[in-house]
Amino acid sequence: MEKIRLKLKAYDHRVLDRSVASIVEAVKRT
């Protein structure tokens, strides 16, 4: 269970980073 939870956390961080990056890009464009 611990390993799975850690993997999910790492995955979430990656997804969040990508979402934030795309939002920042969209803001910069306007």
TrEMBL record:
Residues 5-30 form the Small ribosomal subunit protein uS10 domain. It comes from uncultured Sulfurovum sp. Gene3D superfamilies: Ribosomal protein S10 domain. This is SSU ribosomal protein S10p (S20e). One of its GO terms (cellular component) is ribosome. It holds the Pfam family Ribosomal_S10. Keywords: Ribonucleoprotein, Ribosomal protein. InterPro entries: Ribosomal_uS10_dom, Ribosomal_uS10_dom_sf.
